[in-house]
Every structure is written in structure tokens, then in C-alpha cells.
């Protein structure tokens, strides 16, 4: 029996959270943890002792190479001692390396970035800023495979209840204005666009970017919906927005870039929205690498066996099973769901009510698609029922009368096809 991650918890509203009105919102800062774990998208077996081993001392902001002659590196987000390096298995079986740092003390900042030459150069940008809070691969914007026609800065968050990027726009429009300028210079993109909820359009008014007001109704803020509504282009099955010359980046990452360039200090804190078991929403800032457990303890949030922790928003988030999971560069939201509020899936087959088909913004015959996915027929699902055209909104699960976790079947199907493709590439 699969537990639904969120659905059934009260009645999720399908409108994006409305903030604005000129008043800045408070942010709760989580103090430095005693230990931190930094997740890196790099194979554990390739980490060489030449560059990183247990017992090494690291400083905050220190750039640590991972391979000889390659460009792989990570930035230490704390000052302390490497206690262990392990494999971490994430969503859909994806593996990462986890660097565990103990004895974290007050920050001793590594001076390499502040002593570096022109911080507004491609070389320095790729050398230090590949991962920034809110983005895990800036390289795809600075050195894209397909030249970029436009960069869209997300001043509205993609999922419901999440207001991480709205808050950045509301609380730091000056930083965002600078970041937009720097990003334009670095990427040479022809057009800069910022998407905002209606209540924040005046906060984006002075930026060197076209301001696009997004109707605050889910899923209008998803990139493929923006492609359709703003650029009047449909992203073909299996392609990304970037393949079509349009890249998306969170407002938070743009502000982080401005901070790093102006101050020569690596941004190492992450903003996110936290929703507790009572549905209370909090704006949090924590050091990247802080465990969820430490965050909850500081906020006096107690979890018990059977509660669910959702990483991400209610429509697209996923359950995580360990409170040891650290805050990462892309942690935009954490939702804690009380065990009594979790709706369990029952083994009811699809009753062919058609609700999912009516809800699907990509026009997919979801009722037919789910039959193939439930039986592991992923190739057929892509070929016959357009699996790869799914824009990953989760509306099908939200409306499903039989409570089938359709969205998770879809994500599993896509992950399996991606693995299959990468096996084919490596086998020649
Ligand atoms: S998640 Fe479901 S509703 Fe959304 S695009 Fe994909 S199939 Fe359609
Ligand atoms: S909403 Fe659920 S029960 Fe209804 S057709 Fe779609 S998958 Fe079947």
C-alpha cells in the first residue's frame, strides 16, 4: 500500500499564495548546526583521497575539487572536519555522495573567492558559482548547449503554498535588480523576463527585465505553462525549455549571484517555506547541510512515527523518510504532515471517471496512461499515451477518484526511461 504524500490533507487550495502589499515578511534564521551534510551529484566511488578524505579540515566557502583535471568541485558550506563520506540514495533511486562535516564552528571564510580576479567573468562564475541557493547548475545558463533567447527569472514559485521566491522579490528587490544585470552580462541572453504574482509586479518594476504577471492559479507558474502562455510555444515530448532556447532560474539564485559577485563571499544559506502539522507557514533561512531534524528542533516542531515529511510543495513534492536529510541548494519547501492526516491509497482500480483527463493541462489520456504505467510498460506509455509530454503538475493525482498515485507512477516511468536511455548510451 502506497501512502499519498500530501493529498487528502485538508483541502489544498489551487491558488498560489498571495503576498505583497509592500510589507516585508519576517524570516526565521536557524543557527549553525553542530554537524552538516552536503549532498553532491558526483559518484561516491570517484571521490579521490587526493582531494578529500576523512579528517580533513574545511572552511566555509572553500572550493574542493573532486577529480584530477576535471571541473568537478563542491563548496563547503560550513567550517569543520570531514567525518565521513557516504552514498545517499534519493528520489527514484538516484544516488549522490554525502560529505558529513562534524565539529562545525563559527565560520572561518575561505578567502579564495574574495581574492579571485574579475568575479563577473565566465571563468570565475563556472569556477565558483555552478551551484547557488536556488539553482544546482548555473553552467547551463552561462555556457548553454543551445544559445539562449531568453532567461526567465521565477519570482513566483512553481508549487502551491510555497513562497520562497516571492519572498526574495518582496524582501530584496535591490539585490534582484543587480543580479538580473549581472546575469544578463554573463549569459548574453537576448531577453530577460521576470514572472511575478499580481501583488508583486510593482516590486519588479525597476529591473532590466520584462515583467510578466502570472495568473495566480495552479499550474500557471510551471515553466512549460509559461512557454505556452508567454512564448506561445509548446515544448515537444521529451524536450526541455532549454532545448528551445529558454532557461528558467529562481529569483533566489539571482540574488545569491549578485551577493557573491559584489561581496566575494559564497552564499551558503538557503531560504525555504516550512509548513508545520497545523498548516502554519513559516519563512526559514538555514545553512545548506543542516539536517531537517535540527531545523525542526530549533522551531520546537516534534514529529512522531508515521508522520510524513514532504520535500517540495503539495502538488509535486515527495516524501522523505529520514529526518537526517539535509537542506540542499534546491530545498524550496518542507511540509510536515501529521500521520492522521495522511490518506492511504486503497487498492481500488481506475474507475474510468475521466477526472484526470479533464484536469490534465497537457491533454494526455491519463486514464489510459496509468494502466500501462501500473504494469511497468514504460516504452508503450511514451509511445502510445504521450508520457513524455507530461508537464509534471500532479493535478491528475489531486483529482483521482480512485486515489491512484498517478503522478508518482508518471515520475517512476520517466525515471526508468531515462535510466534505459543512459544504459543504451553507455553501451554504445
Ligand atoms: S502530472 Fe498528470 S495532469 Fe499533470 S501534465 Fe502530467 S499527466 Fe497531465
Ligand atoms: S481520475 Fe483516477 S479513477 Fe478517474 S479515470 Fe483517472 S485514473 Fe481512473
In short:
With 428 residues, this protein is an alpha/beta fold. It has helices at 112-115, 122-128, 139-142, 164-171, 173-187, 223-229, 251-263, 292-298, 355-359, 366-374, 378-385, 395-399, 406-426, and strands at residues 28-29, 36-40, 57-58, 63-65, 73-75, 79-89, 95-105, 150-154, 191-196, 210-213, 246-250, 269-275, 281-287, 308-311, 318-320, 333-337.
Q: How would you describe this structure to a colleague?
A:
- This protein is of the alpha/beta class.
- Among the domains are: 34-106, no CATH class; 269-341, Phosphatidylinositol 3-kinase Catalytic Subunit, Chain A, domain 1 (Ubiquitin-like (UB roll)), CATH 3.10.20.90; 355-426, no CATH class.
- Helix content is 26%, strand content 19%.
- It is built from 13 helices and 16 strands.
- It has helices spanning 112-115, 122-128, 139-142, 164-171, 173-187, 223-229, 251-263, 292-298, 355-359, 366-374, 378-385, 395-399, 406-426, and strands spanning 28-29, 36-40, 57-58, 63-65, 73-75, 79-89, 95-105, 150-154, 191-196, 210-213, 246-250, 269-275, 281-287, 308-311, 318-320, 333-337.
- Strands 1-13-12-16-14-15 form a six-stranded mixed sheet, with no helix packed on it.
- A hairpin with a 6-residue loop joins strand 14 (308-311) and strand 15.
- Helix 10 (366-374) packs antiparallel against helix 11 (378-385) and helix 10 (366-374) packs across helix 13 (406-426).
- The longest helix has 21 residues, at 406-426.
- It is globular and about 65 Å long.
- The two termini are 39 Å apart.
- Residues 1-13 have low confidence and may be disordered.
- Bound molecules: iron/sulfur cluster (2 copies).
Amino acid at each position: 500500500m502506497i501512502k499519498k504524500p500530501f493529498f487528502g490533507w485538508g483541502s489544498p487550495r489551487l491558488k498560489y499564495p498571495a503576498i505583497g502589499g509592500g510589507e516585508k515578511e519576517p524570516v526565521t534564521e536557524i543557527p549553525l548546526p553542530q554537524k552538516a551534510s552536503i549532498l553532491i551529484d558526483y559518484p561516491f566511488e570517484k571521490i579521490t583521497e587526493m582531494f578529500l578524505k576523512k579528517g580533513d579540515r574545511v572552511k566555509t566557502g572553500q572550493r574542493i575539487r573532486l577529480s584530477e583535471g576535471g571541473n568537478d568541485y563542491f563548496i563547503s558550506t560550513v567550517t569543520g572536519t570531514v567525518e565521513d563520506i557516504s552514498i545517499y540514495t534519493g528520489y527514484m533511486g538516484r544516488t549522490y555522495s554525502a560529505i558529513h562535516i562534524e565539529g562545525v564552528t563559527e565560520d572561518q571564510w575561505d578567502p579564495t573567492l574574495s581574492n579571485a580576479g574579475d568575479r563577473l567573468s565566465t571563468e570565475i562564475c563556472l569556477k565558483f558559482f555552478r551551484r547557488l541557493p536556488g539553482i544546482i547548475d548555473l553552467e547551463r545558463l552561462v555556457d548553454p548547449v543551445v544559445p539562449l533567447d531568453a532567461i526567465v527569472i521565477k519570482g513566483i514559485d512553481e508549487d502551491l503554498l510555497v513562497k520562497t521566491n516571492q519572498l526574495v522579490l518582496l524582501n530584496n528587490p535591490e539585490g534582484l535588480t543587480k543580479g538580473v544585470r549581472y546575469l544578463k552580462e554573463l549569459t548574453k541572453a537576448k531577453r530577460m523576463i521576470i514572472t511575478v504574482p499580481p501583488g508583486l509586479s510593482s516590486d519588479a518594476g525597476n529591473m532590466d527585465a520584462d515583467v510578466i504577471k502570472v495568473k495566480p492559479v495552479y499550474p500557471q507558474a510551471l515553466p512549460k505553462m509559461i512557454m505556452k502562455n508567454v512564448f506561445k510555444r509548446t515544448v515537444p515530448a521529451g524536450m526541455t525549455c532549454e532545448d528551445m532556447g529558454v532557461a528558467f532560474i529562481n529569483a533566489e539564485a539571482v540574488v545569491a549571484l549578485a551577493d557573491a559577485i559584489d561581496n566575494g563571499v559564497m552564499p551558503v544559506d538557503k531560504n525555504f517555506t516550512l509548513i508545520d502539522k497545523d498548516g502554519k507557514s513559516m519563512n526559514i533561512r538555514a545553512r545548506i547541510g543542516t539536517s531537517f531534524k535540527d531545523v525542526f528542533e530549533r522551531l520546537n516542531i516534534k514529529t512522531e512515527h508515521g508522520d510524513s515529511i514532504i520535500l517540495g510543495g503539495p502538488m509535486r513534492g515527495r516524501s522523505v523518510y529520514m529526518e537526517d536529510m539535509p537542506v540542499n541548494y534546491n530545498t524550496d519547501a518542507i511540509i510536515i504532515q501529521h500521520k492522521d492526516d495522511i490518506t492511504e491509497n486503497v487498492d481500488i482500480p481506475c474507475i474510468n471517471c475521466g477526472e484526470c483527463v479533464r484536469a490534465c493541462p497537457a491533454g494526455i489520456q491519463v486514464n489510459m496512461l496509468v494502466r500501462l504505467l501500473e504494469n511497468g510498460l514504460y516504452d508503450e506509455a511514451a509511445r502510445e499515451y504521450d508520457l513524455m509530454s507530461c508537464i509534471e503538475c500532479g493535478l491528475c493525482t489531486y483529482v483521482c477518484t480512485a486515489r491512484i498515485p498517478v503522478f508518482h507512477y508518471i515520475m517512476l516511468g520517466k525515471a526508468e526511461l531515462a535510466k534505459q536511455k543512459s544504459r543504451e548510451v553507455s553501451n554504445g
